[in-house]
Design brief:
Residues 9-58 form the GYF domain. This protein is an alpha+beta fold. The protein has seven helices and four strands. It has helices at residues 23-32, 99-120, 124-158, 170-175, 182-204, 215-227, 233-265; strands at residues 9-13, 16-21, 40-43, 50-51.
Length: 268
């Protein structure tokens, strides 16, 4: 049986699932008598629910006397999840995200930059005009960056939870991305870390209709960004980012829109 005391825990009382709670809170419930040796408990990594008496760290002081309190044989559910109520969660109110808007701004920026660079290689008259194209490309890039930052903020806001804390706050997730050099590390937290926290949250709360985030894709983008500063291979990495970047933001928008719609259905 594999489990970690660092993960959130659930326990069942009269066919009602309660939690998630921290392991220290679970131990406190043992001391108050709400959780006994016969109480079913479960955490991530466990194949099935089990009796509290089977978790040594939970009832260390009970010892062998616990066995006398357990009916024999103890009938455990045959499935991974017993028919108990899914834990409730108060959803954060987030606005939807438009992938089309972000993509349109990004394409516009690339288009005008391309015109500007091409114009700079031609005659003097066109080269003077190229500065206008480059300026328009800069405006598109700034707008795309602002919109993308807003969507990353909303993505982190959507998974903030009192019982399952995420690794950072929405403000830090976005703000630290603008710190020179440090941002190369922080992208791993803001993107790959977010995908891990998101998948963990939807798994614990059993949001079966929630889109699953491809963690490998969210890891690939910061790796490519890091490699892009290396001479020669950086060119290939930069080209790959043009493909991977939109895929990452597509999934971010899907996640944000899922929670925005879910909160709307529940009246938040």
């Amino acid at each position: 049986m594999s489990y970690s005391t660092d993960n959130p825990w659930f326990y069942a009382v009269a066919d009602e699932r309660r939690g998630p709670v921290g392991f220290a809170d679970l131990q406190a419930l043992v001391s108050t008598g709400e959780i006994t040796a016969n109480t079913l408990v479960w955490s991530q990594g466990m194949a099935d629910w089990t009796l509290a008496s089977n978790i040594p760290e939970l009832l260390p002081s009970v010892g062998l006397s616990v066995a006398t309190e357990i009916p024999a044989p103890a009938q455990l559910p045959s499935v991974q999840r017993p028919p108990v109520t899914t834990p409730s969660r108060r959803l954060r109110t987030v606005k939807p995200a438009s992938f089309g808007l972000w993509l349109g701004l990004s394409i516009t920026a690339v288009f005008f930059y391309t015109l500007g660079i091409a114009g700079a290689t031609m005659n003097e008259e066109v080269s003077a005009q190229s500065s206008v194209w480059i300026a328009l490309g800069a405006v598109g890039l700034i707008a795309s960056t602002v919109v993308g930052s807003i969507y990353i903020y909303r993505a982190w806001l959507a998974i903030q939870d009192d019982d399952i804390p995420s690794r950072t706050t929405p403000g830090k997730a976005v703000g630290f991305l603008f710190i020179p050099l440090f941002s190369l590390y922080w992208m791993f937290v803001a993107l790959h870390g977010w995908s891990q926290d998101y998948n963990r949250l939807v798994s614990v709360y059993e949001y079966r209709d929630a889109p699953k985030m491809p963690e490998g894709l969210f890891l690939a983008f910061p790796i490519l960004a890091l490699v892009s500063i290396v001479p020669v291979v950086g060119v290939i990495a930069s080209l790959a980012m043009i493909v991977v970047g939109p895929m990452v933001f597509f999934h971010i928008c899907k996640a944000v829109n899922y929670f925005a719609a879910k909160a709307g259905r529940q009246g938040y």
